[in-house]
Amino acid sequence: MTTQGLNHRLMKSFEAIVGDYNQRFRENAICEMRFYEKQPNLEEVVKLAGRAIVCGRKHRHQWHLTNEALNRATRALLSRRGEFERCKKDFDDLLTLVEAATLHVKGVNEMYWYDTALRIGAFLGTAPERVYLHRGTREGAVALGFEGTRTSLAMSDLPSAFASLTAREAEDCLCIYKTDLRNLARGVPLGNLAKTKGCVYGQPKRGC
Question: With contact defined as beta carbons under 8 Å apart, do 199 and 176 qualify?
């Protein structure tokens, strides 16, 4: 296959991945952000985000974390609640604050830090402008040829098929479709998309 033909095939595959995400997962992610946007105040947001609660239950990203760890993290976040308002215009500052506040809590990790900042940011009106890499998202980035030591990517770093997504949605895609992206890198055509469940959202809950 020529380089031009390979690039065309990959581009069509990336477009298929983005289309599948928009059809199957995008609304669930929007639902999660909407849940936090409509909370009555920042204190309630921090309590819910600290315990990884989305629409009344613990999010699957944090299933492995004990309630004790989540409660400790929540108390640490609440102790610095007044600082969150100063992060309204910079998601990176918000992420750094969440990490600094909970770094001492055993069990929490970079996925917790990112997800928590994302949820608090939804209430504050602060969204990521870069694609932050952690666990499955990093695997997806490596499959696209990026170094695994990178902590984030600019949207312009990604194939043009991802340009219609926000940075948050692109992060979702790299995680949800990491296996598909890895297969594409090995020359394996796309099959049934997103068969793995590492970052897949559950069904939206009514009223969420």
Answer: yes
For the chain, the distance separating the N- and C-terminal CA atoms, rounded to the nearest angstrom, is: 47
In whole angstroms, give the CA distance from residue 140 to residue 135.
9
Judged on CB neighbours under 10 Å (0-12, 13-18, 19+), 204 is middle
Number of domains within the chain: 1
Instruction: Note whether residue 171 is domain-resident.
Output: no
- Quote the pTM value: 0.87
Is 136 a domain residue? Answer: no
Q: With beta carbons less than 8 A apart as the criterion, state whether 80 and 67 touch.
A: no
Domain-embedded: residue 80: yes
Q: Is 43 exposed, middle or buried (0-12, 13-18, 19+ CB in 10 A)?
A: exposed
| CB 67 within 8 Å of CB 90 | no
Per-residue pLDDT tens for 105-155? 998 999 999 999 999 999 999 999 999 999 889 999 999 999 999 999 999
Q: DSSP label at 163?
A: T
Give the residue numbers spanning the domain of 66.
39-124
